[in-house]
Design a protein that fits this description.
Chain A is an alpha/beta fold and 317 residues long. Helices cover 41% and strands 21% of the residues of chain A. In chain A, the strands form 3 sheets. In chain A, strands 3-2-4-5-7-6-12 form a 7-stranded mixed β-sheet, with helices on both faces. Chain A has a 5-stranded mixed β-sheet with strand order 9-11-10-13-14, with helices on both faces. Chain A is globular and about 55 Å long. The two termini of chain A are 33 Å apart. Chain B has a 5-stranded parallel β-sheet, with helices on both faces. In chain B, helix 1 crosses helix 2, helix 2 packs parallel to helix 3 and helix 2 packs across helix 7. The longest helix of chain B is centred in the N-terminal third of the chain and has 23 residues. Chain B is globular. Chain B starts with a helix and ends with a helix. The chains are: A alpha/beta (317), B alpha/beta (279). Chains A and B meet through helix 4 and helix 6 of A and helix 4 and helix 5 of B.
Chain lengths: 317, 279
């Protein structure tokens, strides 16, 4: 079945359901809101399990530090706010009190990437992977669909330590089946090809799969390696992909600086230098617009990935 | 020995230790730790339910030094209280030391939260007090902030949220020494912040406010008792203190914020403290 024909499901609704489940099942789970509950969808906790919902007001720095304090008492706080505010406004608090202390705080970066519902560049998060990736021992995850989102939430509940999960606002094609199990640090080879490998993460994975379909029509055979775990990252799978296809395209709904593409390039430069093209938002500020217009203007469409594939094939050794 | 004499002796010992350590390390803060030391001494020797041999006891009271740059003052009191051997104080700031330049909860048992970036510790203390309430635990949480630190917006984010959860198990101690690293234009030695209005601010945020002399043990002891009997809201103890307290030539002089004493200055300072007492 073509990717465009797959059912699309809301990532944030799935997150909300999974979070409600772990909040009900696990006494130590509490949910912190920075007054965006109706956007992040943690309002479900407020209405269905109000004793587990902690309104922290519009004060992200305090919210992340309070979460650190809660974690020292044996609780597992889940903080959800926009990825832009989480990664930039509260970065120092996360660094000093959550990352350096290795406390069991789960951070949900909602509305990551470019598609944030007509809110524009102040609310888009195109740097969060780069920022979180530089924090020592931080775990950085980005699911591709609703199934993987739910699997990650359940995994993070079982894991003791700080985790950043990058979520998106809208609906995405469901590419995983119900049996899917998330594994930390492991990539998932979603499509096998011989000419090049598209390495993608998060929301850009379904677009990478569509790009592979476009390429297949032009007799170009592309692998798609999805990396839900950006840190730790699957070095073996990246090196294997480079050895196997000798050409790489990275694809992420993020700046081309410091994110997945950079992580892949760091590994290949040290282990197996390979021709790479980077698909992501280039060195410019974005804006508010419809999703399709944004993806087109900022060159994140499947066709943009396919074009990058042809460029890298021209450079392939 | 009376309680107050005993507290005074502990505080004098801690003052001597922190001066010697900063002199030895060639770095560290002096003015702020000296203004805080009487308050810290009462916390660790009288007020808090703690056991140096059980630093992870879930029932223990918590203390967070939000003004983390006064670390050496806290370390001196922790050593005096028996959390670690006194000699270890002299590893302060050096490679692999548990006594980091700013408090590190991963390094030293007894440190409840890593601090150093100002404004953060108070929020973590709010989280600890909230955690106690949510789990019906009886421990109390204490946190010391500075008046310079109170220029950080996060302090007021924390001040806003604590009364919403009626955290009467939380006590903030404001070490109000009125000087900071450089400060505002003033005299040659005094450069204090204008129009702090701290008492009015905390009242407006819905806290129980107690104003005391932060070097009077009677005042400090009474304030903690009053905090314990205050219900439904958190307490802030605004303690008027003197930066560099106890050393005549350091008192009220902003230049001693993080100045290292010379051999001669150290000897003079220790002489002054010997005249007061202690070991």
């Amino acid at each position: 079945m073509k990717i465009s024909e797959l059912k699309k499901v809301s990532m944030r609704d799935t997150f909300s359901t999974a979070l409600l489940e772990i909040s009900q099942a696990d006494a130590k789970v509490y949910v912190l809101d920075g007054d965006l509950a109706t956007s992040t969808k943690i309002d479900t906790i407020a209405t269905q399990l109000p004793e587990k919902f902690l309104q922290m007001g519009i004060a992200e720095q305090n919210m992340l530090s309070v979460a650190a304090g809660l974690a020292t008492t044996g609780l597992q706080p889940w903080v959800a706010t926009f990825a832009a505010f989480m990664s930039k406004r509260a970065l120092d608090q996360i660094q000093v009190q959550i990352a350096q202390t290795n406390l069991d705080v789960k951070m949900i970066g909602a509305y990551s990437g470019l598609l944030t519902g007509l809110t524009g560049k102040s609310h888009q998060a195109l740097e969060d992977i780069a920022i979180f990736r530089t924090l020592a021992h931080m775990t950085v995850l980005a699911p591709a669909d609703s199934v993987e989102t739910a699997a990650m939430i359940k995994w993070a509940n079982q894991y003791n330590g700080p985790v950043y999960i990058r979520l998106a606002r809208d609906n995405y094609p469901v590419i995983f089946d119900d049996q899917y199990q998330f594994e930390l640090g492991k990539g998932v080879l979603l499509r096998e090809g011989t000419d090049l490998t598209i390495i993608s993460t998060g929301t850009q994975t379904s677009r990478a799969l569509e790009a592979a379909e476009i390429l297949a029509e032009q007799n170009i055979s592309a692998s798609v390696l999805h990396l839900p775990s950006i840190k730790p990252i699957d070095e073996k799978a990246i090196i294997h992909a480079a050895a196997h296809t000798r050409a790489i395209v990275t694809a992420e709904e993020h700046s081309i600086y410091g994110g997945l593409g950079s992580a892949v390039a760091e590994i290949l430069a040290a282990n197996k230098p390979t021709a790479i093209e980077f698909v992501g938002v280039k060195d410019r500020n974005s804006e508010s617009a419809d999703n399709d217009d944004l993806l087109n203007k900022y060159e994140l469409l499947p066709t943009n990935i396919a074009e990058a594939a042809k460029r890298v094939l021209a450079r392939k050794c | 020995m009376s309680l107050i004499n005993s507290l005074q002796e502990k505080a004098t010992n801690a003052r001597k230790d922190l001066l010697k350590v900063v002199h030895h390390a060639g770095a560290g803060h002096i003015g702020g730790p000296l203004s805080a030391i009487d308050l810290l001494t009462v916390l660790y020797f009288k007020e808090m339910n703690i056991d140096p041999n059980k630093p992870n006891d879930p029932e223990r009271d918590r203390f967070v030094l939000s003004k983390g740059h006064s670390a050496i003052g806290l370390y001196a009191v922790l050593a005096e209280r028996g959390y670690f051997p006194n000699e270890e104080l002299f590893t302060f700031d050096s490679l692999d030391s548990r006594l980091q330049g700013h408090p590190d909860m991963k390094a030293l048992p007894g440190i409840e939260m890593s601090t150093g970036s100002l404004g953060q510790g108070i929020s973590a203390a709010v989280g600890m007090a909230l955690g106690a309430k949510l789990q019906n635990q009886n421990f109390r949480t204490y946190c010391m902030i500075g008046d310079g630190e109170s220029q950080e917006g996060q302090v007021w984010e924390a001040a806003f949220i604590a009364p919403k959860y009626q955290l009467d198990n939380l006590v903030i101690i404001l070490d109000y020494n009125k000087l900071q690293q450089y400060g505002w234009a003033g005299t040659e030695t005094e450069r204090s912040a204008p129009n702090n209005l701290l008492e009015e601010k905390w009242l407006a945020f819905g806290w129980h406010v107690i104003r005391i002399d932060g070097h009077s043990y009677t005042d400090i002891l009474q304030a903690f008792e009053e905090a314990k009997s205050t219900k439904q809201k958190p307490t802030v103890i605004i303690a008027d203190t003197v930066k560099g307290k106890g050393i005549s030539f350091m008192e009220g002089n902003y230049l001693w914020h993080s100045k290292v004493p010379s051999d001669e200055e150290l000897a003079k300072a220790l002489n002054e403290l010997n005249a007061v007492g202690g070991l």
